[in-house]
Design a protein that fits this description.
heterodimer; A: mainly beta; 6-stranded mixed sheet; 5-stranded antiparallel sheet; globular; B: 7-stranded mixed sheet; 4-stranded antiparallel sheet; 11 strands
Chain lengths: ~110, ~110
């Protein structure tokens, strides 16, 4: 059965901390892995990864894919309260795009 | 600056009523998707359409039907709503090697 698993489910940190979110998958005909941030409404796109070992960065956020381990991590350095959100991992395969359950990140001042 | 337009934004139904959620995209994408999101959970795929004229079941298709009317539009129908279908529904469109773009969501309550 195709699946996407994220860990941890929930994370509480203080401003300035660094966090690492994990995503693992088991799918056939893998095409891409995507990270989204969801606050109150629709998910907003962060990264799309298709090749192993190539880090993508945007400000304090970075992500990398490991196709051998069937996993990806999302790092956030120097967290801020505005980073509080649900972070969703999605995997595109064949014609489908399925999501993990998400990691809820809460950043306190 | 439209992207993916989803209607309605909110809806309250009585058990057994029917309704159709509409979704339209103006990005000329081939693939369109319907998801539901329940509290504390990620998005679960209901149905998807890889191209105009085709539709396929996702993870949680029971109780729903879909129509890919043309390349732009993909509708989701609840024939006989049940309280278990209370959820937030998202439509998305995607092209190969591009990220999915989402509509703003429909908050549906079935009483």
């Amino acid at each position: 059965e195709d699946k996407v698993v994220q860990s941890p489910l929930s994370l509480v940190v203080h401003e300035g901390d660094t966090v690492t979110l994990n995503c693992s998958y088991e799918v056939t005909n893998f095409r891409s892995l995507l990270w989204y941030k969801q606050e109150k409404k629709a998910p907003t796109f962060l990264f799309m990864l298709t090749s192993s070992g190539i880090e993508k960065k945007s400000g304090r956020l970075s992500s990398i894919l490991d196709k051998k381990e069937l996993s990806s991590i999302l790092n956030i350095t120097a967290t801020q309260t505005g980073d509080s959100a649900i972070y969703l991992c999605a995997v595109g395969f064949t014609d489908k795009l399925i999501f993990g359950t998400g990691t809820r990140l809460q950043v306190f001042p | 600056n439209a992207g993916v337009t989803q209607t309605p934004k909110f809806q309250v139904l009585k058990t057994g009523q029917s309704m159709t959620l509409q979704c339209a995209q103006d990005m000329n994408h081939n693939s369109m998707y319907w998801y539901r999101q329940d509290p504390g959970m990620g998005l679960r795929l209901i149905y998807y359409s890889a191209s105009e004229g085709t539709t396929d079941k996702g993870e949680v298709p029971n109780g729903y039907n879909v129509s890919r009317l043309n390349k732009r539009e993909f509708s989701l129908r609840l024939e006989s709503a049940a309280p278990s279908q209370t959820s937030v529904y998202f439509c998305a469109s995607i092209e190969v090697r591009s990220p999915a773009f989402f509509g703003q969501g429909t908050r549906l309550t079935v009483v």
